[in-house]
Amino acid sequence: MLMDPVTSNGLSLPPPFNIRDFNLHHHHHHQQLQQQDHQFHHQNSEDEQSGSSSGVKKLERDDGSGTADGKELSIHGEGETNRRPRGRPAGSKNKPKPPIIITRDSANALRTHVMEIGDGCDIVESVSTFGRRRQRGVCIMSGTGNVTNVTLRQPASAGAIVSLHGRFEILSLSGSFLPPPAPPAATGLTIYLAGGQGQVVGGSVVGTLTCS
């Protein structure tokens, strides 16, 4: 036995009205569900078609321009890797320099010598002989002792030569000697002397300078 859905709920409306209203409501609801389902399937089919077409276009775009763009990208990347940075490396100026260690003396290095010249010997001749034997230039820094019979050229008066007789004490002695082929003008001694009576005289040595 079939029961009317409306009467089963305890309603007392006329049967034709209840049946007609329920059927219309059920039919209208069924049509809405069918329309929504149809729209959903239609939208999915359109999305699939658009997705497939866009995927094909994307593949065609990649295939069509992949060779040229890929070559340009590879060349550009190779240029970047081969490029060297310009300028000094960072911290190169702050690196400590290794110390300079001299393991042997140079042939032209300046050496210090102390010469002792005996009485009666010429100071000029002794220094020149020492330089000629070693083929070295000699620079006289100082000297002490006594000399006799000195001939000097004084710079105050041009061409004035003074001959001093007696014994004098050396206050200062300086000069240089260069062996040949240096000219004779490169060799010379300058001396300052103190006399027995307290007088001081000086000039360029001319001739001999004898120790006493």
UniProtKB/TrEMBL annotation:
It comes from the Eukaryota. Keywords: DNA-binding, Nucleus, Transcription, Transcription regulation. SUPFAM superfamilies: AF0104/ALDC/Ptd012-like (SSF117856). Residues 27-102 are annotated as: Disordered. GO terms for cellular component: nucleus. PANTHER family: AT-HOOK MOTIF NUCLEAR-LOCALIZED PROTEIN 15, AT-HOOK MOTIF NUCLEAR-LOCALIZED PROTEIN 24-RELATED. The keyword Lipid biosynthesis does not apply. GO terms for molecular function: DNA-binding transcription factor activity; minor groove of adenine-thymine-rich DNA binding. Residues 57-83 have a biased composition (Basic and acidic residues). One of its GO terms (biological process) is vegetative to reproductive phase transition of meristem. Residues 107-212 form the PPC domain. This is PPC domain-containing protein.
